[in-house]
Amino acid sequence: MASLEITFLQNELEERRNKLETVLAQAPRNSSLAALLQQVDSALERMKKGSYGLCEVCQEPVEANRLMADPLVRYCLDHLNQAQRDALQRDLDLASEVQRKLLPQANLRVSGWETSYYYAAVGPVSGDYCDLIPSDNGLFFVLGDVSGKGVAASMLMTQLHALFRSLTAMALPLTAIVSQANRVFCESALAGQYATLVCGRAMHNGRVEVHNAGHWPAILVGDGGVRRIESSGLPVGMFLEGEFCATYVELNVGDTLFLYTDGLPETRSSSDEYGADRLTHLVRDHADRSAAELIAACVHDLRTFSGDTPRLDDLTLLAIRRTL
């Protein structure tokens, strides 16, 4: 691991050790806490010797995301014992179930808008984030991708979900919601953790406010052709004082806003990458379709393109179409 990450984890462990000693002073016969203190001391000693982060069996680096989630990890995934494998599987199963529960209502219709989404994690859990929140005057939507993979990324996705759900309930302006979510995410996430996302409000009159924070361009398609709504700000969680700018668009009846994570344009065939241009052509060719039909056409085209090539990243698609 990089020296900066080691320093961060060392400070974390030293702080936790101090708290453990305080608790043990009140409960000196607690054997489980005493054993935990020994594990912390062992990890700190490995840091001094320069062996921290190396598997104690094969001496290969332990997965960085696992160390960031649990600084006491001593073995790589290949050398977990059966009990540890079972515990990890339980964690993955629980995280996967939590994520499924957080997905929005399928084929939601509200205030003259119809929606459809497709969500597919490449593993048991995903760092992709998708939500739809009806409001009195329209629909709040957000789609994003948290940095990293595995349980750590999925838990950050859960944190973002809670943040946006809480902030939208406060009836704040959208710029304030994104700025506040960025501040809380910066203050609570570990160094190097961030999220790209597109979020917005679709009003009943067809006006849509869109914030693209370091994400792939959103695609607006309809009778007026195709327009890409490019990123206008940094990803959420990079800088505490980040600024976020809005783009305003007007959707006519039949127009669709299409959002996606990088699992779509970065999907590969045996010799090529799907890419943004192919996606733009596909969306244009299906501009008159319903939201659900557009999503289905995109998934079909993606599978035809990739064939037997394994998918390497999570995939989330979201279509929002004006119907009234």
Features of this protein?
single chain, 324 residues, alpha+beta, Four Helix Bundle (Hemerythrin (Met), subunit A), Phosphatase 2c, domain 1, 2 domains, 6-stranded antiparallel beta sheet, 5-stranded antiparallel beta sheet, 8 helices, 11 strands, elongated
Describe it.
By secondary structure, this protein is an alpha+beta fold. It folds into two domains: 78 residues, DksA, coiled-coil domain (Four Helix Bundle (Hemerythrin (Met), subunit A)), CATH 1.20.120; 227 residues, 4-Layer Sandwich (Phosphatase 2c, domain 1), CATH 3.60.40. Helices cover 40% and strands 22% of the residues. The protein is built from eight helices and eleven strands. The strands form two sheets. Strands 1-2-11-10-7-8 form a six-stranded antiparallel beta sheet. A hairpin with a 3-residue loop joins strand 5 and strand 6. Helix 1 runs antiparallel to helix 2, helix 4 runs parallel beside helix 5 and helix 5 packs antiparallel against helix 6. It is elongated and about 70 Å long. The termini are far apart. The model has no long low-confidence stretch (mean pLDDT 91).
List the helices and strands and how they pair.
Layout: H1 3-26, H2 31-49, H3 64-69, H4 82-102, E1 109-110, E2 113-120, E3 128-135, E4 138-146, H5 150-168, H6 174-188, E5 195-203, E6 207-213, E7 218-222, E8 225-229, E9 247-250, E10 256-260, H7 275-285, H8 291-306, E11 315-322
